[in-house]
Amino acid sequence: MNRRHDDLNPLGRWIHRNLVAVCLIGVLVLMGCVGSCMPQPVHAAERAVPVPEVSTLYRLKIEREAARNFGLDAPVARLAAQIHQESGWRPKAASAYAQGLAQFTPATAAWLPQVCPAVGKPDPWDPDWSLRAQACYMAWLYAQVKPFRYAGGMSDCTHWNLALRSYNGGLGWIQRERLATQRAGDDANDWRDIERHRVRAGWAHKENIGYPRRILLVLEPRYLAAGWPGSAVC
């Protein structure tokens, strides 16, 4: 039933007079939720990321090391996507902290034979050593990231997300952020909840959460589409 303007209470009269503004505010609120609650769209340039031809020079080596460390269902395309992210397949790539195809820091390279003795004498500039080290280190990190017992199981997407974040920023930081997640009452077995609990510098946290997202959601699908062995995990 229709009601005259004069029959409305003060709040109703205000809404009636400002109906356009109210609707606009509602739209803006909805847009804000969509922007914060849903995954951000992948830019067209990212969707078109090609698989560099130079990667074929290392494919056999990656397949061999992946099988050695992960078995017959080894995530070959995922490891290739990680190398793409780390160095763009440039064996002489260098940053302020890391070196070579798999971008190991000198400290991690020197320590790695303690948990991966088969990699041999550390040499991040040697592509063969880098690929041996990357596959073994990722298998070791994957084994260290265990589900917290208080909650349900951990999806393989979360498992790989956390292992990749550990490679990029350190296993210790991930463990501290999972504990912070648990203390806050959120799910420390879910990558989405863990991302919300930062215990490191803001810039480092932003880089660290973006690292597995690009590998798993942008680069790995490109390598799978190009025929590299494996299957999507997220």
UniProtKB/TrEMBL annotation:
Protein name according to UniProt: Transglycosylase SLT domain-containing protein
Q: Where is the Transglycosylase SLT domain?
A: 78-184
Organism, by scientific name, is Luteimonas soli
Q: Which domain of life is it from?
A: Bacteria
Q: Which InterPro entries match?
A: Lysozyme-like_dom_sf, Transglycosylase_SLT_dom_1
